[in-house]
From TrEMBL:
<dbReference type="InterPro" id="IPR005541">
    <property type="entry name" value="KNOX2"/>
</dbReference>
<dbReference type="GO" id="GO:0006355">
    <property type="term" value="P:regulation of DNA-templated transcription"/>
</dbReference>
<dbReference type="Pfam" id="PF03791">
    <property type="entry name" value="KNOX2"/>
</dbReference>
<dbReference type="GO" id="GO:0005634">
    <property type="term" value="C:nucleus"/>
</dbReference>
<protein>
    <recommendedName>
        <fullName>Homeobox domain-containing protein</fullName>
    </recommendedName>
</protein>
<dbReference type="InterPro" id="IPR008422">
    <property type="entry name" value="KN_HD"/>
</dbReference>
<dbReference type="Pfam" id="PF03790">
    <property type="entry name" value="KNOX1"/>
</dbReference>
<feature type="domain" description="Homeobox">
    <location>
        <begin position="234"/>
        <end position="297"/>
    </location>
</feature>
<feature type="region of interest" description="Disordered">
    <location>
        <begin position="158"/>
        <end position="186"/>
    </location>
</feature>
<dbReference type="InterPro" id="IPR001356">
    <property type="entry name" value="HD"/>
</dbReference>
<dbReference type="Pfam" id="PF03789">
    <property type="entry name" value="ELK"/>
</dbReference>
<keyword id="KW-0539">Nucleus</keyword>
<feature type="domain" description="ELK">
    <location>
        <begin position="214"/>
        <end position="234"/>
    </location>
</feature>
<dbReference type="InterPro" id="IPR005539">
    <property type="entry name" value="ELK_dom"/>
</dbReference>
<dbReference type="InterPro" id="IPR005540">
    <property type="entry name" value="KNOX1"/>
</dbReference>
<keyword id="KW-0238">DNA-binding</keyword>
<dbReference type="InterPro" id="IPR009057">
    <property type="entry name" value="Homeodomain-like_sf"/>
</dbReference>
Amino acid sequence: MAFHGHLPHEMTMQALGADDAAVAAAAAAGGGGEDAVAAAMGGGGEADAARCKAEILAHPLYEQLLSAHVACLRIATPVDQLPRIDAQLAQSQGVVAKYSALAAAAAGDDGRELDQFMTHYVLLLCSFKEQLQQHVRVHAMEAVMACWELEQNLQSLTGASPGEGTGATMSDGEDDQADSEANMYDPSLDGADNMGFGLPTESERSLMERVRQELKHELKQGYKEKLIDIREEILRKRRAGKLPGDTTSTLKAWWQSHAKWPYPTEEDKARLVQETGLQLKQINNWFINQRKRNWHSNPSSSTSVKTKRKSNAGDNNS
């Protein structure tokens, strides 16, 4: 039996449910097998199509085929219409049960062609899903960017953001004219919308918002590890640069007692290393930063530095 002649329209969920009443009546009659189904379907090509569906529904890969098919549908379906797909899925078990008797009657046929057909079709749907997903995302993002550019252009021309209102109201005459024009409007005459242009519909806006959220989520996931690494690096540097409070109190006490000349000698630094447990480099950096912070706030210190430098210069000249 050739299965490829029934693709792709025969594999929609609506097609799988076609003529279910006839198949169910034949199965309920019993004993007739394929002849009873052929009589119920009217014979010929319809009976062959019913047998193909029955064998497909009874195949081990049917669930994967159905899932792959639904995955393709969900990509381009607006969010408000997704419940329709779920409602069809809820009816799938009933369709399988109606075709089970016919599948049992054809169980003796060679299943290699059907195995190959099911495998290839599942792979085809998986590949199509990826292509469709990429296509929808790219074009939806282009639509989002185009709408944003139009809003920006409108704002630059009018000076008002899209969400702002003018506060003006129509007069009674203008209101009546608007109602009259609305009643005369015929959607079939709107060639721009029929060609896919103009303002997006509610379903299109819903789809655009869905794609926007998916892209935002993917960007977050793609850069999540990098953001965490950057955050940890910043925190690590902060922890490394900030000294414990008890150690800084020791250094500040030394600073206050030597405010006129806040330059510790090597012996002073060695003693501070012992008292604070800090490294020599950390102590040197702390005193450098402390002197920068207090350079202009402590004039006596700067005067002492100048005096000491002058005295040292005089000693060298003599």
